[in-house]
């Protein structure tokens, strides 16, 4: 009788306790359940994912992300990794409704025993579902109200989504240290491998991180705890756990795309452009696939060539010479290689795209093109003789040639091939300063709104970037088309849809995966005959003029050297039929390079790069437009070779109606030389 009375009391206690619990739960839901976040949006959750930048060959260059994250579908999660997290974080995950009453009782018991000095593990009672609720919708504040909201949300999540979906959300969202969010990113960060290749030991280590993601001092101890829990839950055999516990944890200090320094100038320029175009949120969190134009082999060749010259010059010097090189396809503007300095880690300033410097004699092809456009022949004679008493505004001019000598009347071609200054001054005076400068503006070298149209600008005192100069020279061989530099071929969103650039339909591309050329509207910048004559002259500058250092055996090369006053900046821009490259060398704070320095240094960098770039290609002569006539002439006099056979004979390209010069009356070098004269 007494036993029945006790049983009735116990039953009534638990009954009314249950009623009170239900009533309390109802009240709590009424109080806290109405203003909770909309959890249903997790049905189509698309987490922030790193944007990845790829080279033209598909190799990964770098990731852009505020949080490093790689989203992994549940079907792609290894079972050992899933089991490791369940064993470590929520052993009743597959059976509880969102909150684990059994786990709460166990946590209360363990924590109470620990308070009284018993050897019990301090534990919590948050389920994986509760952690999803907190991570996505709530703060981490330690308050009763937050825990109540967390529990209510967890119950609702379990009613709305499958266990697999909840686990997918959890394993892709949880912070695991080292800026890694989710197991996909953590696998790369800590072990430099995808989740599919993780070992049991590595799975257990990742599952140990949620409790202390930034403390790796006890990594082995915590990994082994997870392994013991996996054995207790029946997920692995004791023998397998023992083998895993004996393995060394080869943890990286933190993985990032292993982009070599030589690619960083290019990657940073891409980042800056896309940041302006797409905005920070889209660039860093939308998981974009960005296919760039850079060719790693050409990039290495460009950086090696530049650094070889800089290292040789800088040996033993306190102040270091800097430089840049940029190579592109002259028909499409696709940048294939770019180095903006000696070392990106020392200076991120990109001297290929950001440095405005005086361009010296590299302006001359545009000046001489103005003369060709006016109908002058490449063999038109220009006087190379001293100029005395010539003023422009308040400036008294007395131009000199680099060799301090004068040659008398010489053909326009010879003047440009040998980069003579005095005849160039006379040519500018003849065709007009404005006409000379306007060509450089038309080709994008000088700004179109430039108002200072003086002689010094026509002779290269104006400033521009190496990139703009190379783009200007590109029009010489691409049919006179103004092109824009291109560093990105196309951009795909995280679902593989092209959102910018050329649609990558491989079947329409060439064998080397170069996108088809786009149709460019607008009139050409110059006529094809004048352009070809300029290309022919620049070819001569490399073969027998100031650009000899730029020769590449077995290949047709054209180009032009450039040196500013006092040799403060040196340049070379050159090209084959389908590849153009420009080189700049100079101090960041302009000053003379010193004795022995000159444009031959830049030409040497160009040649070293082109030898590698053209090594496996056949020679391709420059295209000749219809209507050109070729005649053999004397290089010094411009007369037909049959009329003046002495000296160097070359083949000249004439437009319709142009012919060689009359035979000279004076034929000896001594008679031709001029030692004095007044302009």
Explain this structure to me?
- There is one protein chain.
- This protein is of the alpha+beta class and 679 residues long.
- Helices cover 39% and strands 13% of the residues.
- The protein contains 22 helices and 20 strands.
- The strands form seven sheets. Strands 2-1-5-14-15 form a five-stranded mixed β-sheet. Strands 7-6-18-17-16 form a five-stranded antiparallel β-sheet, with helices on both faces.
- Helix 8 (200-208) crosses helix 9 (219-232), helix 9 (219-232) runs antiparallel to helix 10 (238-245) and helix 14 packs across helix 20.
- The protein is elongated, with a radius of gyration of 37 Å.
- The termini are far apart.
- Mean pLDDT is 85; it is low at 25-33, 505-509 and 667-679.
Briefly characterize the structure.
With 679 residues, the protein is of the alpha+beta class. The strands form seven sheets. The protein has a five-stranded mixed β-sheet. A five-stranded antiparallel β-sheet has the order 7-6-18-17-16, sandwiched between helices. The chain has a two-stranded parallel ribbon with strand order 3-4.
Tally of DSSP β-strands = 20
Shape, per Cα inertia axes: elongated
Question: Ranges with pLDDT <50 over ≥5 residues?
Answer: 25-33, 505-509, 667-679
Number of helices: 22
Backbone CA Rg: 37 Å
End-to-end distance, in Å?
137 Å
**Structural class determined from secondary elements:** alpha+beta
Roughly what is the average pLDDT, rounded to an integer? 85
Portion in strands: 5-15%
